[in-house]
Design goal:
The complex is a heterotrimer of chains A (319), B (275) and C (548). Chain A is mainly α. Chain A has helices at 2-15, 20-25, 31-40, 47-59, 73-108, 113-127, 130-144, 167-173, 177-215, 217-224, 229-251, 253-266, 272-281, 285-313. The chains are: A mainly alpha (319), B mainly alpha (275), C alpha+beta (548).
């Protein structure tokens, strides 16, 4: 899967009209200088050769240099990726938890007003463009109420020392209270906004599964045994409904990455999503290729993780 | 207390109402819109008032008019994208599923690869390499979403294929085309309707997303996502209306198609269980 | 005990431990006091201080440390003596500079003619960065004696003194330092300037300290070099920069506070605003004369009268721009406001359209009732996100005179490649001078062999509907004369005439230049903003805070 994606990107980017070398040197540079630089960068070789060179370099860990300012692609990506990871994990977490919660409530109040309200809410949630929700949040919580900062991942004066690159984690690890508060306040809105994208399908599945399970015979048995409602809920109904939730969450992971690109743009977070968007704009092929490859690897890893969790939670499933 | 509101039909009803209103709006934009979509006035960034119920943007254009025309653009791109990807996805999915075996595997692998990769990023790449513009954006979205249709149709057909009466037909010696047209396709049809409608939802959201990121229709044509992005720049000076209203319009349009699609889904399920 | 109680107790204990940790950490961090330090914030990325290699942005960072033979005065485009005390023009191809005696580099080594020769030769040989211009113009550098240098040019070039004043051509670093630091040289720059480089953390901050041995201590404009220390802090984006200014963590926000961040600063009582109009951003609409419709000079003139310049400057650009009347900078001697013949006048525009149509019909260019349609290309990624709005206004203006304009938004890459192939019927563009001499733009734009004119097809056309052939001939001639002319007044005259003729043909419609705004804390005084951007690196040294 990864290989196909990478090839596609390579082809697409190489076939684009336009000349990155001319961009680097400016419009009035003499032709010889342009040709010399083109040769230096290896851009005058036939496409297939370039492709093989590229693959070879990739595998050996050299992902090339950005066409803008010659920064190392892999350095930029590894520098910015943790923030996207942080955003994704937070949104996954918040979305899944709230989704499970909301779904359960809907299931236990099936048919009542609350259930309908929740269903309406889920339609609405799925129809709202992420970037719009982000702007609304910024307006309400950021500008009108002045409660939360509307952009950036952290304020420069409260930056924690980089350990992992996940800023909230870093502030915990370095016991930096100011940084912790600062980073959390910056990440609340983006994670909530992106979390909605996960919350809606999770809530739906949860509700559906809970309703199904609650009707099963063994639930009746448990109730008949006199077990308290809470135990029935958590020990039986819940456990069985959780599996599909994990699947759904996993399925939506790639959509989450796509959403991260939009969220990072709205909240000006210096993560990989924004890097990809701006690299596409600037025709920075090596960076775009690197980002896309990285995303592909990420999605692959996430899918594998979901499979493994699946097997772990339900030992009946054998591969 | 249980309120006996039949869920399915209600969703469908609301969906139909919204979509029909949107269609009406789009078709009669020229009559309904108070100003032209590019009429400049000297009222720069004015808040909502009587003359401009949704305020004006940074160039002095009426926002209400822009979102009415913008709706037209979004729906247009959505239709084009869905038409292309729906047709290709369904046809390829049908063929692949029907013949199965090696052909199916050969097609499924690239389809799955594209499917598991974030669709909006795929669309972003393709749209940008094709250059901007409405048709290119629609094509890019179409390509990125083909695998979704492919997968659904394929799974439906796989399940239909196994039905015994198909085996029976084959045993009698009925032709492939006969089987496909008389049995398989009709079985898929109801699901396809809701699939396409939900596809409109995805396509419109994607189009707006791409517009937001700066790819898509060149100015001065109003595009809801692009207008929202432009409107963001005025946010810090206190002007909330250039970004809120375009987004609201996207929301309403998408909500309409969403509910319509879900309503159709419910209908299909109902019919299936009552058969 | 109930399980939930157990869990709660554990949670409380964990949180308290973490909280205690935070508190302890807080107590331990100490802040250091500073003394007479000026803190400048910027979002630009500085990567290199080696003049032979660096690009435009880096030169500002290098200016407090390095000096040229003649530099630009703080508030004008005039040259003043710096490391040289005088220069003489021996002939059109030979310049002799007399160097200042007794100047030392920051590492104590003496400054003399061999240092100059070493640097200029090196820049020429490397051919990187902006100094590649040297390779065609300069032939050799001759050390006449310890304090005299002669420059032998390959061709007569009257703009040579300006060339030599540019950071990438003329900044002289210490040769001994280069030898000592090798590859690290760009990060350990040693020069002769008023400040020394103390430290540089890439993408973080650059710290300069006062050079106590500076030769120019008495020569400094206000007779007092103010800050003991200058810190140049790098920020990720405009919002962060703004925040830092509001908090007082920086004294000057330099390049760039984004337009959308400005309103909140304007109401801030602790912040003052200064306007800068720097050389280098003459924005115009260019036509490629091989395309239909725009190959009619009456049509182009009609367009020049149809554009609502005020609306563009005030509405689309939000007053971050100013109308200008030539691509030559107003601070230069050879500036001629040749484009003030055009102003927003729809009646005149319509008159010209009528003439254009008549002439076109006569010449068989296009038929009388044909809709004139033009494509207008622009690039927001390079010139700013307001550019499409400028295009929208132009489109509207053209509609009023019956021209249908189609806007095409592309990226920089595509724009310059297409321009290079003469594929852009009309586009929004700028021609930034690489060095502060008119020759660069004049040659590029008005000379038939220049990179601009040749791609825009401003060439000798026998057909005087496209351009006035006499204009084309004469402008090229004037530029050729000017480059050889050593008398600066005469030279200016040539350039002025060329601008007038060129404006008449309206192949470029000069419209606006960018205005930039710097935001400073209220208590910062003495900052001078001249037309030359790099001079600001030098100007910081003359700034001071109330109470110093």
């Amino acid at each position: 899967m990864v290989l196909i994606v990478v090839t596609m990107v390579f082809i697409v980017m190489r076939l684009l009209p336009g000349d990155p070398v001319r961009v680097m040197l400016g419009p009035d540079a003499p032709d010889e200088t342009i040709e010399a630089l083109r040769h230096n960068l290896g851009l005058d070789q036939p496409i297939l050769t370039q492709f093989f060179f590229y693959l070879r370099e990739l595998v050996s860990g050299n992902w090339g240099r950005s066409l803008i300012q010659g920064r190392s692609v892999i350095q930029e990506i590894t520098y910015r990726f943790p923030l996207t990871l942080e955003l994704t994990l937070l949104s996954m977490g918040i979305g899944t938890l709230t989704g499970v919660f909301v779904g359960t409530i809907a299931a236990t109040n099936q048919g009542k007003a609350l259930d309908h309200l929740i269903r309406l809410g889920s339609f609405a949630g799925y129809s709202m463009p992420i970037f719009w929700v982000g702007v609304l949040f910024q307006l309400v919580f950021g500008l009108s109420l002045g409660l939360l900062p509307i952009s950036g991942a952290v304020d420069y004066y409260a930056e924690p020392t980089r350990v992992t690159g996940l800023l909230i984690l870093d502030s915990l690890l370095t016991l930096n209270g100011k940084a912790f508060l600062n980073t959390v306040s910056h990440m609340i809105m983006p994670s909530m906004v992106l979390g909605i994208y996960i919350m809606v399908p999770v809530a739906r599945i949860m509700r559906g599964e809970m309703i199904k399970v609650l009707d099963e015979d063994y639930i009746l048995t448990a109730r008949a045994k006199g077990l308290p409602e809470r135990v029935v809920m958590y020990k039986h109904a819940f456990r069985n409904a959780v599996l599909p939730v994990i699947t759904v969450a996993g399925l939506h992971f790639s959509g989450l990455l796509g959403g991260a690109v939009l969220t990072e743009t709205v909240f000006s977070l210096p993560g990989m999503g924004r890097l990809l968007a701006s690299s596409v704009m600037l025709r920075d092929f090596p960076m775009v290729q690197g980002c896309v490859l990285f995303f592909a690897l990420l999605v692959g890893a996430a899918n594998t993780l979901v499979d493994m969790t699946y097997r772990f939670v339900d030992p009946r499933i054998k591969y | 207390m249980r309120i006996p509101i039949p869920k399915g039909p209600l969703t469908l009803l609301v969906g139909i109402v919204i979509v029909v209103s949107i269609v009406f709006l789009v078709a009669f934009a020229d009559f309904l819109s108070p100003y032209g979509s590019n009429e400049f006035t000297n009222e720069i960034l004015t808040p909502p008032n009587v003359a401009h119920p949704m305020g004006t943007d940074a160039l002095g254009r009426d926002i209400l008019s822009r979102i009415i025309y913008g709706a037209r653009v979004s729906v247009g791109i959505g239709l084009a994208a869905v038409a292309i990807s729906g047709t290709i996805g369904v046809v390829v999915g049908a063929i692949s599923a029907y013949y199965g075996g090696k052909l199916d595997r050969a097609i499924s692998i690239p389809m799955d690869s594209i499917y598991s990769f974030p669709s909006i990023i795929t669309a972003l790449l393709i749209a940008y390499s094709l250059g901007g513009g409405g048709p290119n954006t629609a094509l890019a979205i179409a390509i990125a979403w083909i695998p979704s249709y492919f997968r659904v149709v394929r799974s439906i057909i796989f399940s239909v294929k196994e039905l015994t009466f198909i085996e029976a037909e084959k045993a009698i010696g009925a032709g492939t085309i006969y089987i496909i047209t008389r049995h398989i396709l009709p079985a898929c049809l109801p699901s396809i309707a809701s699939l396409l409608t939900l596809g409109m939802r995805d396509a419109i959201l994607a189009a707006a997303g791409l517009g937001f990121l700066g790819i898509g229709i060149p100015p001065p044509t109003p595009e809801l996502g692009a207008d929202l992005s432009e409107g963001r720049r005025a946010l810090l000076s206190g002007a909330w209306w250039p970004s809120v209203f375009p987004g609201l319009m996207i929301f309403i349009i998408v909500l309409g198609f969403n509910m319509l699609g879900e309503g159709l889904n419910e209908l299909v399920k109902l019919r299936r269980t009552t058969r | 005990m109930k399980s939930w109680a157990k869990y709660t107790i554990v949670a409380v204990i964990v949180v308290s431990i973490i909280g205690a940790g935070f508190y302890a950490n807080q107590l331990l961090s100490v802040s250091t006091p500073t003394q007479k330090t000026l803190v400048v914030g910027s979002t630009d990325k500085y990567t290199n201080m080696d003049p032979a290699v660096f690009w435009a942005v880096d030169s500002v960072g290098a200016t407090p440390i390095l000096e040229p033979l003649y530099r630009y005065a703080l508030n004008s485009s005039d040259l003043e003596p710096c490391l040289a005390v005088s220069y003489g023009i021996i002939d059109a191809k030979t310049y002799e500079y007399v160097l200042r005696e007794g100047v030392k580099f920051h590492d104590g080594t003496p400054f003399n003619a061999s240092c100059v020769k070493w640097e200029i030769d090196r820049a020429k040989a490397l051919g990187k960065g902006l100094s590649y211009a040297f390779s065609t113009i300069l032939e050799s550098v001759e050390v006449v004696d310890n304090y005299r240098v002669r420059f032998h040019l390959a061709t007569a070039f009257s703009g040579f003194p300006n060339l030599l004043a540019m950071p990438s051509m003329g900044y002289i670093p210490s040769p001994s330092a280069a030898a000592k630091y090798g590859d690290d040289f760009s990060f350990k720059m040693i020069g002769t300037g008023p400040y020394k480089l103390q430290s540089w953390v890439l993408d973080r901050e650059i710290i300069y300290v006062r050079n106590e041995e500076y030769w120019g201590k008495d020569y400094w404009p206000v007779n007092q070099q103010r800050p003991d220390k200058i810190v140049l802090k790098i920020f990720a984006d405009s919002t962060t920069l703004k925040l830092a200014l509001e908090k007082g963590d920086i004294d000057i926000a330099f390049r760039n506070i984004a337009h959308e961040d400005v309103p909140s600063l304007e109401t801030n009582a602790d912040v003052q605003e200064m306007q800068a109009q720097w050389v280098g951003y003459p924005m115009f609409i260019a036509f490629t004369l091989s395309h239909p419709y725009v190959n009619n000079k009456y049509l182009r003139k009609a367009i020049a009268y149809a554009i609502d310049y005020d609306r563009i400057v005030h509405v689309a650009l939000g007053d971050f721009a100013k109308r200008i009347y030539s691509f030559i900078d107003p601070s230069w001697e050879s500036y001629e406001p040749a484009w003030d013949i055009y102003s927003y006048n729809v009646t005149r525009a319509l008159e010209y359209i009528t003439i254009a149509r008549q002439k076109a019909e006569q010449a068989g260019q296009w038929s009388p009732n044909e809709t004139i349609s033009i494509s207008l290309w622009c690039d927001p990624s390079h010139y700013g996100p307001e550019i499409p709005n400028v295009a929208v206004i132009i489109q509207d203006n053209l509609k009023a005179i019956g021209i249908k304009a189609e806007i095409r938004v592309v990226d920089w890459d595509t724009l310059i490649t297409m321009r290079g192939k003469s594929e852009l019927q009309s586009h929004i563009y700028a021609w930034t001078p690489l060095y502060n001499d008119p020759y660069y733009q004049m040659f590029g734009i008005c000379h038939q062999k220049g990179g601009g004119a040749s791609k825009w097809k401003y060439t000798n056309a026998t057909y005087d509907l496209i351009v006035n052939p006499t204009n084309v001939e004469r402008t090229s001639e004037l530029v050729d004369l000017a480059v050889k002319e050593t008398n600066s007044t005469k030279r200016a005259e040539y350039y002025k005439e060329a601008q007038r003729l060129f404006a008449d043909d309206a192949q470029l419609i000069i419209a606006w230049t960018r205005l930039e705004y710097l935001y400073l804390r209220k208590d910062i005084k003495g900052l001078v903003l001249g037309p030359v951007l790099t001079s600001i690196g030098y100007a910081w040294g003359a700034t001071y805070k109330d109470g110093w």
